[in-house]
Amino acid sequence: MAQALELWDKPIYIIQVLTPLLHENDLAHISEVHFKITWNQKITYKREDTAMIEPYIMFNGQASEAIDFYEKVFGGTNKRVMRWGDAPGGTDYPVEEMKKDWVLHGEIELCGTNFSISDCDQVFQSTHFMSLMARLDTPEEVRRVYDELRVDGGQVLMETEQTFYAKQYAWVQDKFGVSWQLMCG
After folding, report:
1. To the nearest 5 percent, what fractions of the chain are helix, strand and coil?
2. How far apart are CA 28 and CA 6, in angstroms?
3. For residue 87, what is the DSSP state?
4. Which of 9, 14, 108, 176 could form a Cys-Cys staple with 76, CB 3.0–4.6 A?
5. Could you give the C-alpha distances from 80 to 12, 83, 109, 159, 175, in angstroms and in order?
6. What per-residue confidence (pLDDT) applies to 49?
7. Is the distance from CB of 83 to CB of 91 less than 8 angstroms?
8. Which helix (H) or strand (E) holds 112?
9. Distances 146 to 63, 87, 128, 162, 169 between C-alpha atoms, Å
10. Which residue pairs from 3-8 have beta carbons closer than 8 angstroms and sit at least 24 positions apart in sequence?
11. Which residues of the chain fall below pLDDT 70?
């Protein structure tokens, strides 16, 4: 009997006979597992046990463009995208032809934080009551990201400048309506 864990997008099979420390009920509660494989290679699996809040941004047909844009601007990693057209067919959840390329669920890591992104039928009003804060390493990086977020219709909410609370700070709404506060030290 084997239990599959997703580890770096590759399944790792834990053979219960070789790992008497692991039991099916324990898998959800462990934060670190060490086990030996028959050729004595030690493998470590780590999982964060702490709760976290992850941004989930929804778009109306622009999620694919947005995830590519954020990947470029922030040097995003671990991008994964599932499209509405990839969903299993059936009469319970028919997908309109024009929405088959829409993002059903996408994920990307930006500045060490995992973001989820998707398309939906709703049209949302952008608001400045909620912003995403990007803590960047240098004032030059703040200026670079600021410049890239304002292209193609981005709106400056606060010019990039040195303040009493930051070496460099800026606030901009990108072309998709997402509000970003950028800060260094």
Report:
1. 20, 40, 40
2. 13
3. S
4. 108
5. 19, 10, 10, 33, 22
6. 64
7. no
8. none
9. 20, 36, 17, 14, 9
10. 3/27, 5/45, 7/45
11. 1-49, 91
Note whether 170 and 179 are within 8 A (CB): no
| Contacts of 170 by beta carbon, 8 Å cutoff, 6+ apart | 142, 143, 146, 156, 158, 159, 160, 161, 181, 182
pLDDT of residue 26: 41
Q: Which pTM value belongs to this model?
A: 0.71
pLDDT in tens, 7-41: 334 333 333 333 333 344 444 433 333 333 333 33
| CA 148 vs CA 73, 114, 126, 142, 144: distances in Å | 6, 20, 19, 10, 6
Same CATH topology for 52-124 and 126-185? Answer: no
Q: What order do you get walking across the sheet with 155-163 strand by strand?
A: 132-135, 179-184, 166-173, 155-163
Q: What is the CATH number of domain 52-124?
A: 3.10.180.10
Token readout for 112 is 């060490």
What is the residue extent of each domain of the chain? Answer: 2-46, 52-124, 126-185
Counting Cα atoms < 13 Å in the Cβ hemisphere of 132 gives 22
Beta-ladder partners of 113: 110
State the CATH class of domain 126-185.
alpha beta
